[in-house]
Amino acid sequence: MDNEIQLISDGDGLAVIGDPTAVERFLVSEGLTSSKDLGLPRLRSALGGAAEAAKLASELSAESGRWVKLTKDSAELIDKYGLRKNAKTGVLTGVVKGKKGQIRDFVEFAKGPGTGFTNPGLLSGAAGIMAQLAMEQVMDDITDYLATINAKIDDVIRAQKDAALAQMIGVDLMIEEAMAVRGAVDRVSAVTWSKVQAAPATIASTQAYALRQLDALAEKMERSAKIGDLAKVAKDIEARAQEWLAVLARCFQLQDALAVLELDRVLNSTPDELDRHRLGLRAARQNRLELISRGTERLVTRMKAAAETANAKVLLHPSASPVVVRSSNYVETRVVDFHQCLGIERGRRELEARLWGEAVAEVRDKAIEKTSQGADAARALRDQTLNRAGLVAESLSNGISERVRRLRGDSEEGKP
Q1: Is 334 a member of any domain?
Q2: Do 99 and 166 lie in a common domain?
Q3: What are the DSSP E strand ranges found in 79-225?
Q4: CB-side exposure of 55: number of CA atoms within 13 Å?
Q5: Are residues 169 and 296 in the same domain?
Q6: Last residue within a domain, chosen from 74, 103, 123
Q7: pLDDT for 137-178, tens place per residue?
Q8: What's the CA dihedral at 123, 125, 127, 128 to 10 degrees?
Q9: How many domains does the chain have?
């Protein structure tokens, strides 16, 4: 009997749906060993109460759904199997077919036996759950990031006097509680949602505050003109930037958690609005990423400019200049790590601190080169002067000889 696997991609992840054995074989054959349960039973609320919906719900219970994060390898499957964009939801869909467990030929999406996923409500629900899984994956990555840097975020927040930061601790606790309840009952009730629906404003204020702090550090670096002052400021930024990056990471994590709760709430209450809500959340999330990226990049740019200035003056400041360069590289590394856990892509070019001896050697070489050039110029000038002197002497000698000849000629003509 033929095995058919349905594929759905929303640009962030890939859902693989079908018979459990066939799904597992497909994932193994494509090297997709790390996957998460899609949670197909949760889609029942997107089907309504029609007879067709009951039939589709029954079919769903017999199928397996796995989700994998889109990487370079998994993204190639979209082209490999020719997934096509759904006009209503904007997600890419397709079916692959194989015999005896061998997945091979691409088949038109609507021709597969699992045609339930042509149902708009079901497809929207699947896309909504995929968006949740993608955000939950980033939330896990941020948790690992915060554990790696051993950031004491609560200590940082408590040390501030800003009211929004003080409220952040309470928001953090309420969202964690809501996520725990959701995990237990697999849905977000009106009561649970009412506890967290005012949280976005507090999180946004905290995010803005953290970005302002990073910008203030960058401006402080820019205002320092002396290399000694730059070294002191750079060391201070090295210590404080990490803390504010951690606060930004936690803000982003909580915003993703709220989005996960929102999607559940919409899926359960107004599933026909799920697609619009999902796309709206996606756009807002991208805006946050761009805002955070610009703010952190400004700090890196100013740190690198200071490092280049310090490198250029290492001869006069052999101990302070390398400190600025090391701090700049340290901060850039921390920003790159931060960007990676949020899914922001950027390159990195580490600046090497110039050694004092190298700077001395360079100055010496330039001096020698300049001296050599001066000597060459002097020799050329001397030769040129001698040549000109020779020409003048020769011209003068010729002139005198001519005058002597003329005088002799005149005297001979005057004899009797």
Answers
A1: yes
A2: no
A3: 84-85, 92-99, 102-107
A4: 8
A5: yes
A6: 123
A7: 999 999 998 888 876 666 666 666 566 677 888 899 999 999
A8: 170
A9: 3
